[in-house]
Amino acid sequence: MRRTNSYAKHLWWIIPVLVADYFLFSHLLRRGPALEGSLPAALQNVIPAAIVAPSPWKSLRFPTAQDRLLDPDPMGVFQPTASGNPESALYGSVRTANNGSGLMSSFHEGIDIAAMQRDRAGRPLDDVMAVADGHVAYVNRIGGNSNYGIYVVLIHDDPALGEVYTLYAHLARAEPDLRPGKTVRAGDVLGTMGNTASSGIPMARAHLHFEIGLINNMRFAAWYKANKLKPYHGNFHGRNFLGVNALDVFAHEQRTPDFDFLAHLETIPPAFELIARTSRTPDFFTRYPGLWEGSPVDHGVIVLKVSESGLPLRGRAATDTEMAELGRKSSLVLNVNEAVLGRNGCHLVSHAGGNWKLASNGERWLEVLTY
Scanning 95, 98, 184, 253, which has the fewest C-beta atoms within 10 Å of its C-beta? Predict the structure, then answer.
């Protein structure tokens, strides 16, 4: 008995050490991709493999029972707008809108998946499901206060990149137990397909609007309030989402067993480059450090490679030559790829007087990105 007491007396320190180790490894798990490069060299090849969370894309699936999304003859798979143009259901500059003074091209951030089942009143019966493992970030249950209608946003942690969002919109209803922070698995039912939206969607054209992409700025909610804009959806407002082509993601994942989102972004060609002033490294690159090249910004001028949708594909500090080229201007558009820009549905840049510049949409986009 004295020996047991002696051990207890001299080994009391084991308990606090074990507790400290538990919290240390919990912290490392939460950091995920930010961990790489911050460990001692001797541990680089040992610890990350043990503690980095598995890729959510291992479980990637389609968001409804419709399994023909990649069918080369997709008749009946997607839901077009009132125009009837099949392309209007797809991603990109596929739509036309009236801006008050005439018709202009319009960008569609997602894909619109048609209903497969309806009840006798014509209401869709299709379940809407999580495409990958993740957690709930936001649920809007009021159909009339967003053009997304009733919608759910999930966050998926890509080990190589960071947080990727998926969005499921125009639902008739969202599952009652969905709440921010709730863990979901691929295939979990999120709600039922519907036609909710502030702009109104006829029941005959009810569909699922599905998006996948990155979040622009986690200070967006503060920017939105500062500009006294409504309705308020925090950081999960449509203006803060930078989508990519969901069909390309599904196709890439099917071709590549070890698919990761960072590698996918490298396949997207930039539509233009931009030199811009900023008071600090944008929050976007703090959260997605894999998209930043070189040293941090120390002079307030950055260079961006930007997709057609406004997604920064790469960022870096400007060189002295580029800073001199910018001069006293707040931004300068460079190297526009007109083939990639296409119909220019986002209207971030415009061409006038033989030169390209940020349009009013682009100035607002840059304001949000650098807020």
Answer: 98
